[in-house]
């Protein structure tokens, strides 16, 4: 036999209101018999950092604070670098999540980067994480153009976390160009310090002095002529 009971909105210890006034249950609910159950507490461990509901509902509209995670990549240009985000539901209620890309300042580097396609790849679809379940999201970065590439994403959850503050992920990839002069540089570094610059200068000065000593001085010619005339 199916049993049902009606209940008003539940408030947790921090004042978070849980939507929904009617709940259907196939088990004889403890709520109908006056047994108090634990209120839903959303808590998500985000890459090792715990994000949960804090504060009360009166401050729900205050969203100035935010938590930011930076994921960095540093491959050679054209190569693929990978990383992973780990989301673990450590609360006692399901957490629905979705991704939204954030707009950054209209700087010159950002405007130039928008002319190229995105260099970051991951599953941007929404999902749900059950209590005690870990969700892993694979990230990849690849760029054939050397330089710095960034993207910012916001993780939206329902119920909200961190008193409604923004939970953000900044992806930062630095594509390194191949060093084509590494062999020549190693050869120069292996040379003795005195032979790098002193020897060419010494040879040049030696050539100048040796050339000037072979040519006779103009004064000596005059004196030689005078001596001939006197004779």
UniProtKB/TrEMBL annotation:
Gene3D superfamilies in UniProt: Immunoglobulins
Biased composition regions of type Low complexity, renumbered to the chain: 210-220
Signal peptide (from-to): none
Residue numbers spanned by region Disordered: 202-231
Listed InterPro entries: Ig-like_fold, MYCBPAP
Protein name (database record): Uncharacterized protein
């Amino acid at each position: 036999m199916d049993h049902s009971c009606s209940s008003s909105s539940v408030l947790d210890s921090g004042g978070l209101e849980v939507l929904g006034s009617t709940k259907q249950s196939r088990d004889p609910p403890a709520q109908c018999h006056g047994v108090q159950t634990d209120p839903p507490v959303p808590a998500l461990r985000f890459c090792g950092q715990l994000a949960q509901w804090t504060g009360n509902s009166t401050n729900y509209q205050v969203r100035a604070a935010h938590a930011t995670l930076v994921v960095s990549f540093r491959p050679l240009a054209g190569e693929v670098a990978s990383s992973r985000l780990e989301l673990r539901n450590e609360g006692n209620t399901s957490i629905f999540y979705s991704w939204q890309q954030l707009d950054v300042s209209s700087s010159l580097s950002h405007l130039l980067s928008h002319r190229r396609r995105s260099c970051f790849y991951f599953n941007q679809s929404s999902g749900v994480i059950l209590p005690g379940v870990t969700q892993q999201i694979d990230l990849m970065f690849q760029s054939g153009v050397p330089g710095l590439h960034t993207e910012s994403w916001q993780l939206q959850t329902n119920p909200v976390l961190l008193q409604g503050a923004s939970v953000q992920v900044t992806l930062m990839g630095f594509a390194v160009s191949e060093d084509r002069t590494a062999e020549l540089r190693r050869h120069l570094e292996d040379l003795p310090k005195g032979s790098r610059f002193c020897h060419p200068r010494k040879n040049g000065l030696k050539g100048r002095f040796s050339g000037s000593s072979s040519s006779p001085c103009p004064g000596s010619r005059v004196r030689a002529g005078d001596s001939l005339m006197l004779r």
